Amino acid sequence: MAITRRDFLNGVAIAIAAGLTPLDWARANGKNSALIQDDYYPPALTGLRGNHPGSFETAHAVGREQQRFAIDGLPTEETWDLVIVGGGISGLAAACFWQQQMGKQSKILVLDNHDDFGGHAKRNEFTVDGKTLIAYGGSESFQSPANNFSDEANKLLADVGISVTRMKQGFDVNFYPDHNMSRGVFFDKKNFGVTKIVSGDPGRAVSDDIPHDRLNGRPIDAFINDFPLSDADRKALIDLHVTPSDYLAGMTVEQKSEWLDTHSYREFLSTKVGLSPMAVLYFQQRSNDFFAIGIEGITCSDARACALPGMEAMGLPPLDGEALADLEEPYVYHFPDGNAGLARLLVKYLIPDALPGATMEDSIKARLDYAALDRPENPTRIRLSSSVVNAATTPEGVAVTYLRDGKPHRVVGRNAVMAGYNMMIPFIVPETPAQQKADLRLNVKAPLVYTNVVVRNWRAFQQLGIHEFYSPAAPYSRVKLDYPVSLGGYQHSASPDDPMVLHMVYVPTYPGSNMTAREQFHKGRAFLLGTAFEEHEKMVRDQLQEMLGGAGFDHQRDIAGITVNRWAHGYAYYATALFDDMEEMPTIVERARQPVGRIAIANADADWDAYAHTAIDQAWRAVNELKAMG
């Protein structure tokens, strides 16, 4: 689906009207009030969230429509020591690092185009029968902190009051195993000819929160023999799992490693293992959640790092430390609202009055005061619904122009940090060198959807004995009961009769299209932006009804709320030899994040890695680059 001069949001087209100047257009389409009232509380909003209506239209006017705003005559309204563009984890971390190095009275302004801070780390709240349920709408958990987190990241966590030890203690890894529940597979009728639920998946998973000895899995042959596939396909899948061959026999270890690094897992299964198209289909969406692309878009080496089968008998060298940690370290460092919990504590560190309480635990149920974010008396301020359209070096510093409520504003910072998406920097900072602009544009972010559905009970899951579904071909590749976290007085659902948040992952992919990852991401993004909430809702209800209807689930009766967190620009681009020159990539990454004058570049994109610790590390680098300039 191509979107050119208009974005279709909730079925309503918002167009750049002919004859309007860019500033006229901005004023006409200003949809987010600059005034924050006492009842302003974005986490409680449902419907279409994430890249929500009002958050991206200005950026699209600047980037896609090549609109240029007449900003030269704007007066400077405020001056700051540091202006940060982007209020996600990297932008907030940069503010913390700056404050630590330059003093708490140093003046910092954070501008963000969304109506909430946190970037991809968004908090969703629901109220069902008087009970508040907390969920994560984006950035999920800390990824292998014992192995992956730098000293600087660990120190920042400690500074804002986060204890990964106490986070781990609040995660009940035995909750679902003790309920005799396992992972399962949903085979949909459209693609497999019959609706079939198969429980007892014994397979390991990357970033797994269930202990390896508590999976409640069945023997692999019994599990696969329940698949709605032909006898030959089931036998082939069992052989692949139980008695894999050296499918690259005749190659040296070095040649095997090179082949696995440069060929897709789909090609491997089809041409080397010899699976039929239907057998391959079983694996199609196994990589969706981790990589935001199907198995045609990941290398065999990446598949191996995700514990996908087929490479055990090849005599390959051990996995590297990071990949091994992702498989071995429990995935249990999770706030009830995901990494929004980190973002909220970063905000509290910067603006103490914004969040009540003194500890990490106190923050969990506390209601953040959004009116406190932009008070004039605070040296650090966070200004939401503010879309930056230009940043330029001047003799006074960096002039930053943004639109808020349809009105243009200009501030000047002695220094600036770009902590938003890499792909927008060439448009916001026109003086960026041409080669650097080209490098920045290569980071095409992967689209995905995190949908949270509140159900009034989870008896259907209990009856099926499944706490998490993988779907090979249905729209939502992952449907799971919420992580069992009880922390700071917040209690996870204890009984199947209690309400529960379902977390669902949808990634628009195009298997068989022969498109590169970037091409798929562009097309998927257009699809997401062109899909109304009502269509998302129907997709959710139809899949849940087909999955759970046989166990007594009724979507009209049992669904109490739906929040669709649409991330048209989701994961940072992950470079792979399938589509990139891997020898050139380190140079591209380094060139792309070079400062432009006194404008430094942070964000997870700056290291081409979609993790919270990456965002923090890049904030540390950016702040120190500015500090070194004096």
Tell me what the structure shows.
There is one protein chain. The protein is an alpha/beta fold and 630 residues long. It is 33% helix and 20% strand. The chain is built from 26 helices and 19 strands. The strands form four sheets. The chain has an eight-stranded mixed beta sheet with strand order 3-18-14-17-16-15-8-9. Strands 4, 5, 10, 11, 12, 13 and 19 form a seven-stranded mixed beta sheet that branches. Strands 1-2 form a two-stranded antiparallel sheet. α3 packs parallel to α17 and α20 packs across α25. The protein is globular, with a radius of gyration of 24 Å.
What would you call the shape?
A: globular
Q: What is the average of the pLDDT values?
A: 92
- Catalogue the unreliable spans: 1-34
Helix content: 25-40%
Please outline what is shown here:
The chain is an alpha/beta fold. It is built from 26 helices and 19 strands. The N terminus is likely disordered.
